Amino acid sequence: MPSVVSKQYSDDVSLLVLLLDTNPLFWSTTSITFSQFLSHVLAFLNAVLGLNQLNQVVVIATGYSSCDYIYDSSLTSNHGNLESNGIGMPALFGSLLKKLEDFVTKDEELSKEEVSEDRIPSCLLSGSLSMALCYIQRVFRSGHLHPQPRILCLQGSPDGPEQYVAVMNSIFSAQRLMVPIDSCYIGVQNSAFLQQASYITGGVHHTPKQLDGLFQYLTTIFATDLHSRGFVQLPKPIGVDFRASCFCHKKTIDMGYICSVCLSIFCEHHKKCSTCGSVFGQSKLDDASSVSDKKRKAPST
Amino acid sequence: MAGGQVEKRVKYKSSVKDPGTPGFLRIREGMLLFVPNDPKSDSKLKVLTQNIKSQKNTKEGSNKPPWLNLTNKLGKSHIFEFENYPDMHACRDFITKALAKCEEEPNKSAVSTSSEQLSIKELELRFKLLRENSELQRLHKQFVESKVLTEDEFWATRKKLLGKDSIRKSKQQVGLKSMMVSGIKPSTDGRTNRVTFNLTPEIIFQIFAEKPAVRQAFINYVPSKMTEKDFWTKYFRAEYLYSTKNTAVAAAEAAEDEELAVFLKPDEILARETRQKIRRVDPTLDMEADQGDDYTHLMDHGIQRDGTMDVVEPQNDQFKRSLLQDLNRHAAVVLEGRSIDVESEDTRIVAEALTRVKQVSKADGETTKDANLERLERMSRLAGMEDLQAPQNFPLAPLSIKDPRDYFESQQGNVLNVPRGAKGLKRNVHEAYGLLKESILEIRATGLSDPLIRPEVSFEVFSSLTRTISTAKNIIGKNPRESFLDRLPKSTKDEVLHHWTSIQELLRHFWSSYPITTTYLHTKVGKLKDAMSNTYSKLEAMKESVQSDLRHQVSLLVRPMQQALDAAFQHYEADLQRRTAKSGGERPNGYI
């Protein structure tokens, strides 16, 4: 009956899409092992599902060369996989782990075929963001009563500048859909992409200092649903790193040239824009470092 | 006024049926007093002449008694019954004179207050502005009422607010009336057999704009051949003849009077213009309408005014004019708009100005030979029929569809990185994957780690998070998008903002008074300086009074204001020193 269902759907029903970083190059260099990390994460997922009966969780694995859906709590085929569970493992996550294993194998296969070697060991964030947004879009179109979706990005790999355009596109789509992107960065360097994503979409960004307390961080900061965030004070970053990467070399720059037609960023003077093909005029001054169409991107305070 | 007052014995009736109370009516300038004979009766009446609206009286020849009925402005009527008719007439004349005089006075007073009225209106506008804008009111109160600035100075910088309406009104350009004033029927007086046409400058302008032949005739004939009055008389005679639709008479008169004939025959100038326009019509279908194409002004167009088909002799054909022709011509002129800005009363100037404008536009419209050729060529090109033309074989260019993968792959770009040995990397990757798979197997086997998290670690995390949140709140506030001002208590915030606007006002007047040339400016600057030092000390006091945790931010806010004031003070001191140094020792007492 629709009225009963609407009564059940209160403000704090949430759909959490978790983007799990499974980049092996990162996990081979961390202090925390992947299994410890997984136990924190799985306990956190359990907690989220326990907060509200109607909560949903979707897990997408972000690999080195590919991404895939690992787990969807709304599917009924999760339950009843008793034989593959060991002791201490919630019944819910048996299939998750199985799928994760299959995914890692597949990812390994794909990475063997990859040609380019000189790549920053980043995970495929743009791919998993796109998949998450597609899933959320499907949820939006499913009807009036749907949980409030948000994306949580658990990542430790550094940013891959070659994915800048795709990541920014996904971030703007998320902004349009009004889906907040929370990000928990457990890596060493700072991730400009994740900071920008959380800033633009209105999500929370945090870099936990103590990785063995990861579960505490996750439940304190990232478990709140969107409605309750109005009353709860969550940690905010003081500044956001707004640096972009140039389109020609994929370097991170903070001062460069911008095409006035398509707003593509270049680190050096070009005759023609490679994205939209518009021809740039003569630079007014001879000195290449002080042309008028330069744009300075300074981190905001 | 002769005959200062009139006194008569009357009976006062408040209505027709009332028998009337006998008494005395004393009419003086400005006032009318009725005193009843019986002192105990209470129908004493005093009416001011200003309040009398009208008066009526019974006629002498009728059988009615002599009554005078005065209605006042409120509608109440007072009826006075006189003893005889001459008395009544005397009173009536007196009251008429008084009423006439009363009417004059309001007119005079209206004229004299109109010059004051402007400033009254302005005062009203000022009050309205002050009422609506509380910030302005506060500034006004602070400065004008404490005599720091005068009223005029205060409003001098706000001319834009006051004068907005008047500026707007004068910028509007008045267009032409769409009513055909030139075709209004004259007033006919049946008794005297006169037809009166009214002629105003507006009508003259319309006639000249719509009928270029009349305009040309005016320029040619006046003042050489006839006076303006004669010209218009003849013109209106022609109009009258048109309106009677008597073509025979029209033909006869035209034959007699050549000037009249000019008005009676169709407008040659207009016909010429229209024929030119017809020649220039583009046969390629151009949906844009040509400006006021008035093809119907030529003969053999147009419908009859009343739908009948009169039989008209061919030679009299030209003396007919149809309503549609007039309407179309008028509409064309109105759409063109007011082409001249001459507001002169002099008809000749108007006529000449219009001719000049028409000549200029004609010169612009005339196309050169080259332009003509080009036009013809374009027309023939556009009007060509495709299936009649020879087949054209355009050279074919091969279709090139780019591989979209190029675009996406270019995004990968040349990544400048520390190059690693290819084989080494592959090995690394393989190892890493191996490690990863091991971890997964491990967790599948052992389950979640127990305990998941140690209590002391948890506690540390909590405390660090709390610290982070509270420090962030201190620095950027609860809402990163709110400004510091919102965190101040409301009274402090208002005070800060008010100080800001008042300092701006003061500084504006201060800096505009330099260089000091008159004593007026000198005193003004002195007053402004006192007000500014006052504000400065108020700012200092405010900084001290605010809470300690906000003090730093408030002082940051207040600093630019104080810096501006300091600069003004410095300038004042420097200027003062210069003046005293310049005037040297020959200073009269008391001169600063």
TrEMBL record, chain A:
Pfam families found in the cross-reference section: Tfb4
GO BP terms, alphabetized: nucleotide-excision repair; regulation of DNA-templated transcription
Compartments (UniProt record): Nucleus
GO molecular function, one term: zinc ion binding
Main subcellular location: nucleus
GO CC terms in record: transcription factor TFIIH core complex; transcription factor TFIIH holo complex
InterPro entries, alphabetized: TFIIH_Tfb4/GTF2H3 (IPR004600)
Family assignment from sequence similarity: Belongs to the TFB4 family.
Subunit structure: Component of the 7-subunit TFIIH core complex composed of XPB, XPD, TFB1/GTF2H1, GTF2H2/P44, TFB4/GTF2H3, TFB2/GTF2H4 and TFB5/GTF2H5, which is active in NER. The core complex associates with the 3-subunit CDK-activating kinase (CAK) module composed of CYCH1/cyclin H1, CDKD and MAT1/At4g30820 to form the 10-subunit holoenzyme (holo-TFIIH) active in transcription.
The protein's role, per its UniProt record: Component of the general transcription and DNA repair factor IIH (TFIIH) core complex, which is involved in general and transcription-coupled nucleotide excision repair (NER) of damaged DNA and, when complexed to CAK, in RNA transcription by RNA polymerase II. In NER, TFIIH acts by opening DNA around the lesion to allow the excision of the damaged oligonucleotide and its replacement by a new DNA fragment. In transcription, TFIIH has an essential role in transcription initiation.
Name the UniProt record assigns to this protein: General transcription and DNA repair factor IIH subunit TFB4
Species name: Arabidopsis thaliana x Arabidopsis arenosa
Automatic annotation (TrEMBL), chain B:
Domain of life: Eukaryota
Subcellular location: Nucleus
Keywords: DNA damage, DNA repair, Nucleus, Repeat, Transcription, Transcription regulation
Family annotation (InterPro entries): BSD_dom, Tfb1/GTF2H1, TFIIH_BTF_p62_N
Keyword Repeat applies: yes
Any GO BP: DNA-templated transcription
Residue stretches making up the BSD domain: 112-166, 191-243
Listed PANTHER family: TRANSCRIPTION INITIATION FACTOR IIH-RELATED
Family listed: Belongs to the TFB1 family.
Quaternary context: Component of the 7-subunit TFIIH core complex composed of XPB, XPD, TFB1/GTF2H1, GTF2H2/P44, TFB4/GTF2H3, TFB2/GTF2H4 and TFB5/GTF2H5, which is active in NER. The core complex associates with the 3-subunit CDK-activating kinase (CAK) module composed of CYCH1/cyclin H1, CDKD and MAT1/At4g30820 to form the 10-subunit holoenzyme (holo-TFIIH) active in transcription.
Cited function: Component of the general transcription and DNA repair factor IIH (TFIIH) core complex, which is involved in general and transcription-coupled nucleotide excision repair (NER) of damaged DNA and, when complexed to CAK, in RNA transcription by RNA polymerase II. In NER, TFIIH acts by opening DNA around the lesion to allow the excision of the damaged oligonucleotide and its replacement by a new DNA fragment. In transcription, TFIIH has an essential role in transcription initiation.
Protein name: BSD domain
Species this chain originates from: Arabidopsis suecica (Swedish thale-cress)
